[in-house]
Fold:
Amino acid sequence: VDDPKNSVDFGCKANTGLGKKPLSAVIKEVCDGWNLPGPDNYALQYADGVQTYITESGRCAEDLYKGIQSSDSGVRCDSLKELASVSTDVTFAQEFISRDGHLLLVKIVEDSHEYVIVMSLSNTQCFMELMDHGIVSWENLSSIFIKKIASFVNGKSSDASIQQVSLDILESMVLSSHSLFLQVKHEVTMERLIAHLQVTNQQIQTKAMALLMALLQTAGDSDRQVLLLSHFQKCHFLLRNIIHSSGSVQDEMAHYLYVLQSVTLNHLEPRMKTPLDCYSQEQRDILHGLRQAAFETESENSLSHERRRSLCAKEFKKLGFSNNSNPGQDLVRTPPGLLALDTMFYFAARYPDAYSRFVLENSSREDKHECPFARSSIQLTLILCEILRIGEPPSETGSNYHPIFFSQDRLMEELFCVCIQLLNKTWKEMRATQEDFDKVMQVVREQITRTLSSKPTSLELFKNKVNALNYSEILKLRQTERLHQEETLAPPVLELKERLKPELLELIRQQRLNRLCQGTMFRQISSRRRQDKLWYCRLSPNHKMLHYGDVEEDMENPPIETLQKQIPVADIKGLLTGKDCPHMKENKGKQTKEVLDLAFSITYDVEEYSLNFIAPSRTDFCLWTDGLSVLLGREMSSESMRSELEILLSMEIKLRLLDLENVPIPDSAPVVPKPPSNYNFCYDFSQTEQ
Structure:
């Protein structure tokens, strides 16, 4: 019915054989009976077409309902095939389901022993098409049906088309309710599902991955942990059979790979959000294990308590902890919490030589040039958590997965081991001191981000690429990008900006005045009242009066007539902000910095009186102070105005230069040629062309 003309043509051709009163005749009778003007012929034909469409849908549903119950297997197969072609139509689906046709399909699956029938059903996906309309609930399906569909997935000899539609049906069941999730999880063999990922059929791979992700996302934390540890911890087959397959990874599969990566990495979130417990003996032992692995010390048992305590504090300082006497305090901040301790311990245990070399190398440098291992490790762990988006739920549209994830069992820890050595290398290249710590971390973040964006498929490839991207290369890339962006700083563009500024400033002024006309609700802070008094202020539409008055809390936008007090704009003498406001001076020393930043006042009548404001937010403060400045004939000066002006200028410049993309803009205007000696080259339009 989407195309009226097609509906009319269809209705005109089919309506003659209905043998029922056409809908157009009914409409005419109603209009005549109620003395209403009748619709035109086109509308009447359209109505007949709709009637025919619905009637034919019901007739077709009835025919197919009978056809799939025929004793002739050929008729049943043909009916199922035709059912697949019309099941996408919602009107037909309603007619077919109203006859319990979907239950008939369920029964065919439950009772079928004929391979041809099952194959036809699976190939055409009629059941799936009908259920996709959401007319009936998935929960109405029997456990026998679920077992039958699961058997198609678990069976090795099933046809690919049967497996594909069965995987699709099971995914919809899992996502529809928790009870169906439990049934599907009980019936489907996980080993067989993972085996489907190793086939060459991309459709089977995608549908199997979709079901696996549905099971993972619907499962509780404990079930999800079991699934990940038992089946997904080794994902090398995904890298080999999907990412490295001959065909490119499709968008849907890319999304499922991203979801798997996100769900797996998010199991580090509890450690990331748990601070170190200074009273935990296990965690204290790990800290001292880091110290002992870095420094070869004599037996500490023979030392006195004070001597041992002094030695520990000295060695923890060399390790880079800021709190020497209690290094656990450095790991209280979350994130990264205990995850930073885990990554440091993993590095020390997995790569002891590299760990000792890092610590001892920096211990021998001057204090200001040493790279603090502990502080760097904590910050690097936080950076990796942000880059890998640990703790963020997977997006419904995300598809940005890292192939390297599927080549490593412990990606976070292995990346840390590579990047902490990279950090030490970059520190030396930058000849950094303790004051340059944040700059070094910014460069390291950029090195990691740029390297991961190139989609390395193995840790070794990542290591080679990230080490090749040294500090000098980062500087070159930054310079190239800066030059590319600074094309908008050419003298002609700057001149264009200056010409555009007055027009855009006027636009901002009008917006500020319009905002003042809308008005704002303010709170009047009073030390004698437990609840602040509410009042409303707004500018009159002609911009000549400020109207204000007390209001109730439930009044969002009171009419201007209800605001009894008013101040002529012509009487306003000045605008005060912050601590210069009279109501801030009265409560000097009692107001917080936050309140001071939101306070402003206007003085009027030879500066004898003032109207005092405390804005609800910084945005409202900027809007009102700008608007009042415009009324007083002054320049707007808020940070909001500067930000908006810059945004508007940037947008306007980009629009103006859109046609000049990749065209170099000269610093100076081209030379205008000299005027011609005469202008006798105009065309005479008065002569009629022959």
Remarks:
- The beta strands are 520-524, 533-539, 545-550, 565-568, 572-577, 599-604, 609-614.
- The first strand starts at residue 520 and ends at 524.
